[in-house]
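Entry type: protein chain
Record version: 2
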Amino acid sequence: MKDLAPILLFVYNRPWHTKQTLEALSQNELADQSTLYIFCDGPKPDVSQVNSENIATTRQVIREKQWTKNVIIYENETNRGLADSIVKGVTEVINKHGKVIVLEDDIVTSKGFLKYMNDALDFYNGEEQVMHISGYWFPVKDNNPPLPDTFFYRSTSCWGWGTWKRAWDKMETDAPLLRKKLADIPGGMKQFSMNNSSDHLQQLERNISGEIHTWAVKWYASVFINKGLCLHPNISLANNIGFDNSGVNCNTEDSGQYYWNELASYIPVNKIELSESKLAIKYITKFYRRNYPFILHQMKKLVPSGLKEVIKKNFLGKPSLYGKNSLSYLKYYPRYKETTITLMGKETKIADSASFLFMHKEIFKKDIFKFNTTDKTPYIIDAGANIGLATLYFKKLYPESKVVAFEPDPKIYRILEHNIKSWELSNVVLVNKALSDKESFVSFFSEGADGGRINGDENGTSTIQVPTVSLRNYLDNQPVVNFLKIDIEGAEIEVLNDIRNSLQHTKMIFVEYHSFANKPQRLEDVINTLTANNFRIYINAPGLSPENPFQSVPVISGMDMQLNIYGIKNDYQNS
């Protein structure tokens, strides 16, 4: 049997990213024959409750499946940081196996990634000059003449890579020493920074000053100083989904769009000349100069705002992710990063890719809110409207309906307003308030997606004060409420108790029940309120629901279970 390289995955506190990475990896050819080492970094001394939960959930995610043939998990009790974790982890495993394939928790791979990496590691095993195998290549627009299937150039890539012990033994982590050795090479500084087009030298300088502590630029410098070659595919086999401010070294700028690829299913590895591709250097230099974020940063400081937009639009060549296949792009689009797509032919803003895809599937694919009525102008309440998908669904279902939509989060409400206008929906009333049992103000945790909630335990800049209103005001004076949807992230118990005597005219009700870990479960309050109002109840668990609660219970955003509860008035159901 072929001696496959072990895979190393470094994770910390990003359960969603980790799961995308593992799901993609598990679908790789050779995954069922490979050994996977997962290194879990530990909490920092001042860890917040949210981060503590995310660390715990990430450690549950990695145990959800047998992702590869063998899975070996290491969990740190304290925080090492990404740079030290990778250097130490790679060193430990490579000393044992002689070669490695390395992933971080935000790298999704195509099905042929492992085969390409193993083929390349085997093919160039004896070539001392070849020090690094990359599974990623930039989405360069220039491809005339085209690059060959594989090629060499000077730079490493940390987004899905591999190497051998013989090369890793030359890894130097002393940034000042690396800087000195680069300066000793004639023209070394310019060559290292891709003809002064990239920020590699600045990264090294920032490591020296202590501003950052990273490993990748030190690995690149080590390879460069040793005149190493790095193999790259002409079409990427990996993408980075971490440009959402959730990672250590990825920000919320538009960088993710510059580096996004349509992935190759596989790239063959054949014999090529052991020399750097001048064409690759030409293309990557142009790419960096076109898209290099440092340029945008400097431009923001020097150029008037109106001119910035003209320059970005006409000269920076920023590729668009949002064509007719925008939903498929969103599958790996960074979380909590606002963007615009086309939905049903209309411009639609979204706040978060993952929650949008889940809601879109539930609402438009599964039709969970589809209901029947003979009323031509049904009255519908959308409590917890988020960006408006349910409201849009209701208006498509019954164009003459009146919809009252509540959304307390100011940031999400702004998107909701935009979408309602863009979708050209009429007879929709928007209310920028949280639902409660009285008119007042409450602390509200603005999560940035579909998980904003009142009465949260979170502290910090994401907790704000929002006004409240009672839902009774919108029920008592209505002769008929055809459909009442309540999805308000844990406030449903308080609101249902408040409207217990106001549901006599409501025909159908949907409640998303939320069970918070380490807090009393009050499911019976929901059941009692609905049965007391003559509703026939149906329940399912489409989202967060532990499959093996006797073994482990995942906790996401403080919750250990969610239920969809459907209520239909008995007299309405039998009519």
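Comment: The chain has a mean pLDDT of 86.
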